[in-house]
Amino acid sequence: MAFPIQRPRRLRQTAALRSLVRETRLSPSDLILPLFFHAGLDEPRPIGTMPGVMQEPVKAAAEIARVAKRCGLGGVILFGLPKTKDPMGKSGLDPNGPVPVAVRAMKDAAPELVVMTDVCVDEYTDHGHCGVLRTRADGTREVDNDATIAILAEMAVVHAKAGADVVAPSDMMDGRVAAIREALDSSSFENTPILSYAVKYASAFYGPFREAADCAPTFGDRAGYQMDPGNAREALREIALDEAEGADMLIVKPALSYLDVIRRVREASTLPLFAYNVSGEYSMLHAAAKAGMIDLDRAMMEVLVSIKRAGADGILTYHAHRAAELLRA
Ligand code: PBG
Fold it and tell me: Which residue among 120, 173, 225 has the greatest number of ligand 1 atoms within 8 angstroms of its CB, and so is best to mutate?
Protein backbone atom coordinates (compact mmCIF):
# COMPACT_ATOMS: atom_id res chain seq x y z
CA MET A 1 0.00 0.00 0.00
CA ALA A 2 1.40 3.40 -1.05
CA PHE A 3 1.56 6.34 1.28
CA PRO A 4 -2.03 7.47 1.99
CA ILE A 5 -3.69 9.38 -0.81
CA GLN A 6 -6.19 10.77 1.65
CA ARG A 7 -4.60 13.34 3.97
CA PRO A 8 -7.30 15.02 6.12
CA ARG A 9 -4.62 17.43 7.32
CA ARG A 10 -4.67 19.16 3.92
CA LEU A 11 -7.84 20.95 4.93
CA ARG A 12 -6.51 21.93 8.35
CA GLN A 13 -3.50 23.92 7.16
CA THR A 14 -4.81 27.46 7.50
CA ALA A 15 -7.50 29.26 9.43
CA ALA A 16 -9.20 30.11 6.13
CA LEU A 17 -9.34 26.48 4.99
CA ARG A 18 -10.57 25.34 8.39
CA SER A 19 -13.29 27.95 8.27
CA LEU A 20 -14.25 26.92 4.74
CA VAL A 21 -14.93 23.32 5.76
CA ARG A 22 -16.37 23.95 9.23
CA GLU A 23 -19.58 21.96 9.62
CA THR A 24 -21.11 23.71 12.61
CA ARG A 25 -21.09 27.44 13.16
CA LEU A 26 -22.38 29.49 16.02
CA SER A 27 -23.97 32.86 15.64
CA PRO A 28 -25.08 35.34 18.33
CA SER A 29 -28.65 34.73 17.16
CA ASP A 30 -28.37 31.10 18.36
CA LEU A 31 -27.98 32.28 21.94
CA ILE A 32 -30.73 33.01 24.46
CA LEU A 33 -29.73 34.78 27.66
CA PRO A 34 -31.47 33.84 30.94
CA LEU A 35 -32.14 36.84 33.23
CA PHE A 36 -33.16 37.08 36.88
CA PHE A 37 -35.33 40.05 37.84
CA HIS A 38 -35.70 40.67 41.57
CA ALA A 39 -38.64 42.79 42.76
CA GLY A 40 -36.83 43.83 45.95
CA LEU A 41 -33.60 45.18 44.48
CA ASP A 42 -32.47 48.70 43.60
CA GLU A 43 -29.04 47.68 42.37
CA PRO A 44 -27.78 44.52 40.65
CA ARG A 45 -26.76 41.83 43.17
CA PRO A 46 -24.01 39.39 42.13
CA ILE A 47 -24.82 35.68 42.39
CA GLY A 48 -21.92 34.17 44.33
CA THR A 49 -22.03 30.78 42.63
CA MET A 50 -22.29 32.22 39.09
CA PRO A 51 -19.40 34.59 38.35
CA GLY A 52 -20.55 37.51 36.19
CA VAL A 53 -24.28 36.78 36.59
CA MET A 54 -26.52 39.15 38.56
CA GLN A 55 -29.95 39.35 40.02
CA GLU A 56 -31.17 42.52 38.34
CA PRO A 57 -33.52 45.22 39.60
CA VAL A 58 -36.66 45.46 37.49
CA LYS A 59 -35.81 49.06 36.59
CA ALA A 60 -32.74 47.79 34.69
CA ALA A 61 -34.93 45.84 32.23
CA ALA A 62 -35.13 48.46 29.46
CA GLU A 63 -31.36 48.97 29.25
CA ILE A 64 -30.69 45.21 29.41
CA ALA A 65 -33.10 44.75 26.49
CA ARG A 66 -31.39 47.40 24.39
CA VAL A 67 -27.98 45.81 25.01
CA ALA A 68 -29.23 42.30 24.20
CA LYS A 69 -30.74 43.56 20.95
CA ARG A 70 -27.57 45.45 20.01
CA CYS A 71 -25.50 42.30 20.62
CA GLY A 72 -27.69 40.35 18.22
CA LEU A 73 -28.78 37.72 20.73
CA GLY A 74 -31.56 35.35 19.68
CA GLY A 75 -33.57 36.36 22.71
CA VAL A 76 -33.79 36.49 26.48
CA ILE A 77 -35.70 34.34 28.97
CA LEU A 78 -36.92 35.89 32.21
CA PHE A 79 -37.07 34.48 35.73
CA GLY A 80 -38.64 36.41 38.59
CA LEU A 81 -37.84 36.79 42.27
CA PRO A 82 -40.92 38.19 43.99
CA LYS A 83 -41.21 40.15 47.23
CA THR A 84 -43.42 37.51 48.84
CA LYS A 85 -43.74 33.73 48.59
CA ASP A 86 -46.54 31.46 49.77
CA PRO A 87 -47.49 27.77 49.40
CA MET A 88 -49.52 28.45 46.23
CA GLY A 89 -47.01 30.73 44.47
CA LYS A 90 -49.64 33.47 44.24
CA SER A 91 -47.12 36.24 43.59
CA GLY A 92 -46.37 34.52 40.26
CA LEU A 93 -49.82 35.60 39.02
CA ASP A 94 -49.38 39.27 39.92
CA PRO A 95 -49.48 41.40 36.75
CA ASN A 96 -47.23 43.85 38.64
CA GLY A 97 -44.73 41.15 39.62
CA PRO A 98 -41.10 41.32 38.47
CA VAL A 99 -41.55 39.31 35.26
CA PRO A 100 -44.60 41.10 33.77
CA VAL A 101 -43.17 44.52 34.64
CA ALA A 102 -39.78 43.64 33.14
CA VAL A 103 -41.42 42.19 30.01
CA ARG A 104 -43.37 45.39 29.42
CA ALA A 105 -40.25 47.52 29.85
CA MET A 106 -38.17 45.30 27.58
CA LYS A 107 -40.75 45.20 24.78
CA ASP A 108 -41.08 49.01 24.99
CA ALA A 109 -37.33 49.53 24.85
CA ALA A 110 -36.48 46.91 22.20
CA PRO A 111 -39.65 45.77 20.41
CA GLU A 112 -37.69 43.44 18.10
CA LEU A 113 -35.95 41.53 20.88
CA VAL A 114 -37.54 38.11 21.47
CA VAL A 115 -38.62 38.13 25.12
CA MET A 116 -39.52 34.75 26.61
CA THR A 117 -40.71 33.98 30.11
CA ASP A 118 -40.12 30.95 32.30
CA VAL A 119 -43.48 29.65 33.47
CA CYS A 120 -43.08 27.79 36.76
CA VAL A 121 -44.16 28.35 40.36
CA ASP A 122 -40.90 27.39 42.08
CA GLU A 123 -39.64 30.98 42.23
CA TYR A 124 -42.90 31.99 43.95
CA THR A 125 -43.61 29.13 46.36
CA ASP A 126 -42.27 29.26 49.92
CA HIS A 127 -41.43 25.51 49.76
CA GLY A 128 -39.51 25.90 46.47
CA HIS A 129 -41.23 23.08 44.55
CA CYS A 130 -42.38 23.47 40.95
CA GLY A 131 -46.01 22.92 41.93
CA VAL A 132 -48.52 23.22 44.74
CA LEU A 133 -48.56 20.48 47.35
CA ARG A 134 -51.08 18.01 48.62
CA THR A 135 -50.87 15.60 51.52
CA ARG A 136 -51.06 11.89 50.83
CA ALA A 137 -53.00 9.46 53.05
CA ASP A 138 -49.77 8.60 54.90
CA GLY A 139 -49.13 12.24 55.78
CA THR A 140 -46.27 12.83 53.31
CA ARG A 141 -46.54 15.63 50.78
CA GLU A 142 -46.34 15.54 47.00
CA VAL A 143 -46.68 18.00 44.13
CA ASP A 144 -50.28 18.03 42.92
CA ASN A 145 -50.09 17.81 39.12
CA ASP A 146 -53.57 18.90 38.10
CA ALA A 147 -53.92 21.71 40.63
CA THR A 148 -50.54 23.02 39.44
CA ILE A 149 -51.34 23.12 35.73
CA ALA A 150 -54.33 25.38 36.36
CA ILE A 151 -51.96 27.90 38.01
CA LEU A 152 -49.38 27.56 35.22
CA ALA A 153 -52.04 28.26 32.61
CA GLU A 154 -53.01 31.43 34.45
CA MET A 155 -49.36 32.48 34.77
CA ALA A 156 -48.81 32.01 31.02
CA VAL A 157 -51.76 34.31 30.30
CA VAL A 158 -50.36 36.95 32.72
CA HIS A 159 -47.03 36.82 30.87
CA ALA A 160 -48.69 36.97 27.44
CA LYS A 161 -50.77 39.97 28.52
CA ALA A 162 -47.57 41.72 29.58
CA GLY A 163 -46.27 41.21 26.04
CA ALA A 164 -44.12 38.06 26.25
CA ASP A 165 -43.30 36.77 22.77
CA VAL A 166 -42.96 33.16 23.97
CA VAL A 167 -43.95 31.35 27.17
CA ALA A 168 -41.73 28.50 28.39
CA PRO A 169 -43.12 26.10 31.00
CA SER A 170 -40.31 24.43 32.98
CA ASP A 171 -42.26 22.59 35.67
CA MET A 172 -42.55 19.06 34.16
CA MET A 173 -46.20 18.62 35.14
CA ASP A 174 -48.12 16.24 32.84
CA GLY A 175 -50.64 17.94 30.56
CA ARG A 176 -49.45 21.46 31.16
CA VAL A 177 -48.79 22.30 27.51
CA ALA A 178 -52.42 21.52 26.60
CA ALA A 179 -53.71 23.49 29.60
CA ILE A 180 -51.53 26.50 28.72
CA ARG A 181 -52.51 26.32 25.03
CA GLU A 182 -56.20 26.28 25.94
CA ALA A 183 -55.86 29.18 28.38
CA LEU A 184 -53.87 31.28 25.89
CA ASP A 185 -56.34 30.56 23.09
CA SER A 186 -59.36 31.46 25.18
CA SER A 187 -57.72 34.79 26.10
CA SER A 188 -57.04 35.63 22.42
CA PHE A 189 -53.35 34.72 22.62
CA GLU A 190 -53.67 31.97 20.02
CA ASN A 191 -50.52 33.37 18.37
CA THR A 192 -48.31 33.15 21.47
CA PRO A 193 -45.92 30.21 20.99
CA ILE A 194 -45.11 27.69 23.71
CA LEU A 195 -41.47 26.68 24.16
CA SER A 196 -41.81 23.53 26.24
CA TYR A 197 -39.07 22.32 28.54
CA ALA A 198 -40.22 18.93 27.28
CA VAL A 199 -37.19 16.97 28.44
CA LYS A 200 -35.90 18.12 31.79
CA TYR A 201 -33.82 15.85 33.97
CA ALA A 202 -33.56 15.80 37.76
CA SER A 203 -30.02 17.16 37.67
CA ALA A 204 -27.31 18.15 40.11
CA PHE A 205 -26.22 20.76 37.55
CA TYR A 206 -29.03 23.14 38.60
CA GLY A 207 -27.21 23.82 41.88
CA PRO A 208 -26.12 27.44 41.29
CA PHE A 209 -29.52 28.37 39.77
CA ARG A 210 -31.21 27.57 43.03
CA GLU A 211 -29.24 30.40 44.63
CA ALA A 212 -29.81 32.64 41.60
CA ALA A 213 -33.58 32.16 41.66
CA ASP A 214 -33.80 31.48 45.41
CA CYS A 215 -35.84 28.33 44.78
CA ALA A 216 -34.11 25.38 46.48
CA PRO A 217 -36.84 23.00 47.72
CA THR A 218 -37.18 23.16 51.51
CA PHE A 219 -37.85 19.41 51.66
CA GLY A 220 -37.45 16.46 49.31
CA ASP A 221 -36.23 16.81 45.74
CA ARG A 222 -37.64 17.13 42.22
CA ALA A 223 -37.22 13.48 41.20
CA GLY A 224 -40.99 12.93 41.41
CA TYR A 225 -41.55 15.20 38.41
CA GLN A 226 -38.24 15.71 36.59
CA MET A 227 -36.79 12.87 34.50
CA ASP A 228 -34.38 10.18 35.61
CA PRO A 229 -30.87 10.73 34.13
CA GLY A 230 -30.76 7.12 32.91
CA ASN A 231 -33.66 7.56 30.50
CA ALA A 232 -33.48 8.53 26.82
CA ARG A 233 -36.46 6.64 25.31
CA GLU A 234 -38.63 8.45 27.82
CA ALA A 235 -37.44 11.74 26.30
CA LEU A 236 -39.03 10.72 23.00
CA ARG A 237 -42.25 9.95 24.82
CA GLU A 238 -42.22 13.38 26.49
CA ILE A 239 -41.70 15.20 23.19
CA ALA A 240 -44.44 13.18 21.46
CA LEU A 241 -46.86 14.18 24.22
CA ASP A 242 -45.85 17.84 24.14
CA GLU A 243 -46.10 18.00 20.35
CA ALA A 244 -49.58 16.47 20.50
CA GLU A 245 -50.55 19.02 23.16
CA GLY A 246 -49.48 21.92 20.96
CA ALA A 247 -45.86 22.74 21.85
CA ASP A 248 -44.23 24.96 19.19
CA MET A 249 -40.62 24.46 20.26
CA LEU A 250 -38.77 22.09 22.57
CA ILE A 251 -36.01 22.26 25.18
CA VAL A 252 -33.67 19.54 26.39
CA LYS A 253 -32.11 20.38 29.75
CA PRO A 254 -29.33 20.19 30.92
CA ALA A 255 -27.22 20.12 27.76
CA LEU A 256 -23.79 18.62 28.33
CA SER A 257 -24.58 15.33 30.02
CA TYR A 258 -27.45 14.88 27.54
CA LEU A 259 -25.89 15.49 24.11
CA ASP A 260 -27.11 12.04 23.03
CA VAL A 261 -30.64 12.98 24.04
CA ILE A 262 -30.39 16.22 22.03
CA ARG A 263 -29.37 14.15 18.99
CA ARG A 264 -32.22 11.66 19.45
CA VAL A 265 -34.81 14.38 19.94
CA ARG A 266 -33.46 16.20 16.86
CA GLU A 267 -34.02 13.04 14.81
CA ALA A 268 -37.47 12.36 16.25
CA SER A 269 -39.02 15.83 15.91
CA THR A 270 -39.23 18.54 13.28
CA LEU A 271 -39.88 21.26 15.86
CA PRO A 272 -37.22 23.87 16.62
CA LEU A 273 -35.04 22.46 19.39
CA PHE A 274 -33.14 24.30 22.09
CA ALA A 275 -30.82 23.06 24.80
CA TYR A 276 -30.28 24.68 28.18
CA ASN A 277 -26.60 25.04 29.08
CA VAL A 278 -27.50 25.22 32.77
CA SER A 279 -26.05 27.05 35.74
CA GLY A 280 -23.80 24.21 36.96
CA GLU A 281 -22.33 23.79 33.47
CA TYR A 282 -21.59 27.52 33.40
CA SER A 283 -20.12 27.72 36.88
CA MET A 284 -17.89 24.66 36.41
CA LEU A 285 -16.09 26.33 33.51
CA HIS A 286 -15.57 29.48 35.54
CA ALA A 287 -14.29 27.52 38.52
CA ALA A 288 -11.89 25.49 36.37
CA ALA A 289 -10.62 28.61 34.62
CA LYS A 290 -10.14 30.40 37.93
CA ALA A 291 -8.09 27.46 39.16
CA GLY A 292 -5.87 27.83 36.09
CA MET A 293 -7.02 24.52 34.62
CA ILE A 294 -8.60 25.64 31.36
CA ASP A 295 -8.91 28.65 29.08
CA LEU A 296 -12.41 29.96 29.72
CA ASP A 297 -13.17 31.43 26.29
CA ARG A 298 -11.96 28.40 24.37
CA ALA A 299 -13.74 25.95 26.64
CA MET A 300 -16.93 28.01 26.42
CA MET A 301 -16.94 28.09 22.60
CA GLU A 302 -16.17 24.36 22.45
CA VAL A 303 -19.07 23.60 24.80
CA LEU A 304 -21.48 25.78 22.82
CA VAL A 305 -20.52 24.35 19.44
CA SER A 306 -20.83 20.81 20.81
CA ILE A 307 -24.43 21.49 21.82
CA LYS A 308 -25.27 22.84 18.38
CA ARG A 309 -23.43 19.97 16.67
CA ALA A 310 -25.49 17.51 18.73
CA GLY A 311 -28.58 18.96 17.04
CA ALA A 312 -29.81 22.00 18.96
CA ASP A 313 -30.95 24.97 16.86
CA GLY A 314 -30.20 27.32 19.72
CA ILE A 315 -28.82 27.42 23.24
CA LEU A 316 -30.03 29.01 26.45
CA THR A 317 -26.79 30.07 28.10
CA TYR A 318 -25.36 32.45 30.70
CA HIS A 319 -22.33 32.73 28.38
CA ALA A 320 -24.47 34.50 25.74
CA HIS A 321 -22.89 37.96 25.95
CA ARG A 322 -19.27 36.82 26.09
CA ALA A 323 -19.80 34.27 23.32
CA ALA A 324 -21.56 36.84 21.12
CA GLU A 325 -18.67 39.23 21.67
CA LEU A 326 -16.14 36.60 20.55
CA LEU A 327 -18.28 35.68 17.54
CA ARG A 328 -18.41 39.29 16.42
CA ALA A 329 -14.67 39.80 16.82
C1 PBG B 1 -37.32 25.61 37.46
C2 PBG B 1 -36.05 25.83 36.74
C3 PBG B 1 -34.79 25.40 37.13
C4 PBG B 1 -33.90 25.85 36.15
C5 PBG B 1 -34.64 26.54 35.21
N6 PBG B 1 -35.98 26.51 35.59
C7 PBG B 1 -34.32 24.74 38.34
C8 PBG B 1 -34.85 23.44 38.76
O9 PBG B 1 -35.62 22.78 38.08
O10 PBG B 1 -34.47 23.07 39.85
C11 PBG B 1 -32.43 25.60 36.16
C12 PBG B 1 -31.64 26.42 35.23
C13 PBG B 1 -30.19 26.39 35.51
O14 PBG B 1 -29.67 25.61 36.33
O15 PBG B 1 -29.48 27.18 34.88
N16 PBG B 1 -38.24 26.63 37.25
Answer: 120
